[in-house]
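Fig. S4 source data, part A: sequence.
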Amino acid sequence: MKLLNRRQPSRSFDDHLTYFTLVEANEFRRLVERSFGASGHDVSVYGDRIEDRDGTTLGLWNIGHLCAGAERDEWPDLIAEHVALVTAPPRDLGDLTSEDFEAALHLRLADAASLPDPDGLGHARVVVPGLLEVLSVDLGDSVVTPSKDELAARGILGDQLGRGRANLLSLLAADEPRGSVVGEGAKGRFTSVTDPSFFTASLALVLPEAVRRFSAEEHGGRGTLVAVPGRHRLLYRPVDAPDAGEALRRMFEVARLDFRDAPGALSPNVFWVRNNRWVPVTSVERGKPRLVPGELRDALKSF
């Protein structure tokens, strides 16, 4: 399988935050999103603004301009200070009854860098380096990830993990979200699930059920190619035919673009999920995209 060879874009400036280059603007937006997440507020970050679940918007120009005049290593602190000024404290988990807490508890796929203290959670599972499976509570206007002590006060961790998985599975019983086939009837087809839910990409944590629900396919012995570029999108393709290699290439292109532009960034890569093990089969090093299929190459040759 050949490496992806693409001409690197020339240095150009962002359309909205014109004092930033494209690379700087994307890094700035990612830091803004992570800072809001660390304060208990899940927001969608667009080119010139952020927007929360209630539709409240906040422009990025002023804080961006402040960062543009500072060193890159100062950006996280500047952004955190700004976020502290414009956000109210998140809703206290202590306000929830036991029933409400259990109903709002979900397994979630999270960017490790977006969590203030991943090691202090006590329940986080490393899916792949940089991506964690955590327990989060959906408060309607925000998603909060409880600490180890907050979970311990609510019961037994094993029971909570089971409840979080059950609540994630319950999303598959609703009419939304829905999956659509990209490239149907052509080589390299794959399924895309896109929805405003903050748990859309997290459905990869219940992959066999999700694949069956959205495309009536099976997550079989050869595994499934999966991409989770952002929290609102899940891409997948079972390794069920030789053209799964072409699907890998196409999914990687979509994932890289979505990771760069969409809110809730998770990963630009494609993973081969088999026996609950996630193996990266792509990489982006120094801006250069590469396919690194390893054992997957042998699986594709077996057809």
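Fig. S4 source data, part B ends here. The first strand starts at residue 44 and ends at 45.
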